[in-house]
Amino acid sequence: MADNNTRDGVAPVPRDVLGYGLAALNWVAGSPVLDRLGLRKRAEQVAFQASKTGFRVAGAASRGFSSAQGLTKPARLPVSKPSDLFDLTGRPCSSSSPTPLG
Question: CA distances (Å), 74 to each of 69, 70, 78, 80, in order?
Answer without folding.
Answer: 10, 9, 13, 18
